[in-house]
Amino acid sequence: MKRGVSLGLALGLCGAVHAVDPPARAIPAQTAPVPAARIVTKKPLDLRIGDVRKYMMPNEFQATLSAPDADKNTVVVEGTRGVPPLKSQQPVPAGIIAPFWALAHPLQSWRVFVPDVNRPPDGPTVDKVPPPIFRWGP
C-alpha cells in the first residue's frame, strides 16, 4: 500500500513538473521575427473516396447496390484471435532454482513436484513398440 501511494505521488509530481511551461528565453536583438507572409497554411485534409468502381469489382458493386438496407449499413470484420498461453503451459525451472521459483510463485509451486508435460525430452525419443523385423524367408 505504501509503495502504491509513494509511486502515485512520484508520478503526480513528475506530471506537475512537465505541465509547467518552460521559462521564456530572451530573444537576441540580432534575430528578426518571421514575417507573416512566410507562414504557409496547409491544404485541408481531403477524405473523399472518389470513384468506388476503382476499388470494387463490377459484380461486387452491383451486389452492394442491390442489397437490402440492413446489409448496406453493416460492417463485417473477419479474423482469428490467437489463444493466450495458459500459466500451466509456461515452463517450470528444474534443479536448484526450483525452490526459489516455488517461493516466488506460491500458487504454482505444486508444479515443481509433478513432471512437466511441456518440457521436451532430454534424449532421443524411443518407440514403445519396436518395428517388425523384415525377413526374406521362413
Low-pLDDT segments: none
User: How much beta, percentage-wise?
Assistant: under 5%
Shape: flat
Give a quick account of the main beta sheet: strands, pairing sense, barrel closure: none
Q: In terms of structural class, how would the helical and strand content be classed?
A: mainly alpha
Question: Could you give the count of β-strands?
Answer: 0
Distance between the termini: 82 Å
What is this structure's SSE topology?
Layout: H1 2-19, H2 58-65, H3 69-72, H4 98-104
Any overview of this molecule?
It is a single chain. The protein is mostly helical and 138 residues long. It contains 4 helices and no strands. The protein is flat and about 95 Å long. The protein starts with a helix and ends in a 34-residue tail after the last helix. The mean pLDDT is 77.
Summarize the structure.
The protein is mainly alpha-helical and 138 residues long.
List descriptors.
flat, 0% strand
